[in-house]
């Protein structure tokens, strides 16, 4: 009986994860530049490589030259992919001399996002 219950709980957990849907990750950190067109030129190869990350759906690049901050909003297929990317990107930023990185993970409310014209799929 206990094994059946454990299997039932595992099935429920797997179903919950499957229903969870895409995971949004928000990064922000202090950044001294470049910004704008110079950032685009400097980061194009990085942007292309990010598209190859497992579970990656899309990214919105963020920058605020006045506040000397940058970051991004990412969408991943699942939490495992999101967490793996957080670890990888945080280590990469540290290699760039950025030691304080804020990363937050959010579930996405798909029905409300679609109403407000958000896209949850890769192009």
TrEMBL record:
<dbReference type="InterPro" id="IPR011008">
    <property type="entry name" value="Dimeric_a/b-barrel"/>
</dbReference>
<keyword id="KW-0503">Monooxygenase</keyword>
<dbReference type="Pfam" id="PF08803">
    <property type="entry name" value="ydhR"/>
</dbReference>
<protein>
    <submittedName>
        <fullName>Monooxygenase</fullName>
    </submittedName>
</protein>
<keyword id="KW-0560">Oxidoreductase</keyword>
<dbReference type="InterPro" id="IPR014910">
    <property type="entry name" value="YdhR"/>
</dbReference>
<dbReference type="GO" id="GO:0004497">
    <property type="term" value="F:monooxygenase activity"/>
</dbReference>
């Amino acid at each position: 009986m206990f094994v059946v219950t454990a299997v039932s709980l595992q099935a429920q957990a797997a179903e919950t994860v499957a229903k969870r849907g895409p995971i949004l990750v928000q990064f922000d950190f202090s950044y001294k530049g470049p910004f704008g067109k110079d950032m685009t030129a400097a980061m194009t190869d990085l942007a292309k490589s990010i598209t190859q990350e497992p579970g990656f759906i899309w990214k919105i690049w963020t920058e605020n030259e006045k506040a000397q901050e940058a970051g991004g909003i990412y969408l991943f297929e699942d939490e495992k992919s999101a967490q793996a990317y957080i670890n990888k990107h945080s280590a990469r930023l540290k290699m760039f001399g950025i030691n304080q990185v804020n990363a937050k993970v959010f579930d996405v409310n798909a029905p409300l996002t679609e109403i407000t014209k958000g896209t949850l799929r890769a192009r």
